[in-house]
Amino acid sequence: MLNLSEFSILDIVALALFFVVWIGHFYIVNHSRFRHHTITAAMVTMRERWMLNMVKRDRSPFDALIQNGLQQGVLFFGSTSVLLIGGLVAGLGAGDQAVAVLKELPLSTTRSSFQWEIKILLMIFIFVFAFFKFAWSYRLYNYILIMIGAAPHQDEEEEVLKQYAKKLSLLHALAAMHFTTGLNSYFFALSAFTWFLNAWLFIVSTLWVALVLYRRAFRSNFLVIFKTKVHPLSPD
């Protein structure tokens, strides 16, 4: 039976806030009415244009090369997640040594092996979640690569090509959403790491991560430039 008495009320509040912010961020960016203003939504139009160009190209390997590059990025993070999970599982057995080190830090409130193990389990949960997202994104990108190879011939009717490109762009955006969700989990894992010190730092870092991710989704310089109408350069 869990002995939650070793955690303070502030610890419980910080953990609850962490999950509320994490889930809330995912909902706002992907499912709320504000999702249309994100950088992800802006990229949907580019994905549609890419896929429309793809179906009109004469069986060029160019699109497959781009897609393969995207898959390699997903594979890297998926492999990294497995390594992190393994390291954290090994860390479960080092509670006494870790607590002895943390007790020497002036701000640390981790005073028992039980507290250490719960916090390690939280980190493991985050990276397991991220791994599942990366693995599914990689699988979806594989399906998309097959669909690129099965694209209708460029001599097909214009409407057929547009419908296929639209469907493919939406599927591509879905795979990208899973990848981004896994990537954002890494940011929240950095926040959870601060819980090893104390709950106040955990709260502050959670809100800081949320603010950073909000800015990147809605207010990034990339998005500002992307939405800015660029005028052609005047001749010298």
TrEMBL record:
Q: Does the keyword Membrane apply?
A: yes
Q: Where are the bilayer-spanning segments? A: 12-29, 74-94, 114-136, 170-189, 195-214
Task: Give the matching Pfam families.
Answer: DUF599
Q: Which UniProt keywords apply?
A: Membrane, Transmembrane, Transmembrane helix
**Source domain of life:** Bacteria
The reply on keyword Acetylation is no
PANTHER family given in the database record: OS09G0494600 PROTEIN, PTHR31881
Query: What is the name of this protein?
Result: DUF599 domain-containing protein
In the record, what lineage is assigned to the organism producing the protein?
A: Bacteria, Pseudomonadati, Pseudomonadota, Gammaproteobacteria, Chromatiales
